Please model this.
Amino acid sequence: MCEGDPVNQSWEDRVAAAWASFDDYPEERAHEFRALIDTLVAELPDGSPLGPFERACAWDSTGHSDRAVPLYREALARGLDEASRYKGRRARIQLSSSLRNTGEAEAGVRLLTPELDAPSDELDDAVRACLALCLSALGRDREGLSLVLGALAPHLPRYQRSMASYARALVEPDA
Model:
């Protein structure tokens, strides 16, 4: 059981180690990976938002978006952002992807669009990529392509300005 704080570094390290071993679990052993995550989650205090988040990630990563969606929602409802703003943002990204996979791309767009204005971090490109996939699922390919090009532009060794301009022109013809 985690002592003191709701989660300690030892628990976080063991969760990170479990995820680092994910590729050691082929599809036919996916249930073993989920059981490993469940064992770690069982150490958390009741009501912790980290439990449903880690379980959602495990279901999602083993091909069960439908099982992940309610768990992501539960984690967010329990206050995942307060426990970890980073994991809260990850939950919204992954939830939007799962919503797209389960035919609810519009809900994914509604969930991720506010993230475009959130404080910047290393997840910015993932936000744009998942939002682009949701938009594409809705037949809004130009908007999706604009997001992807805009995310890619800063990473290019040259052409940053022109790619950023092309990205804007896809959705703002007068840009």
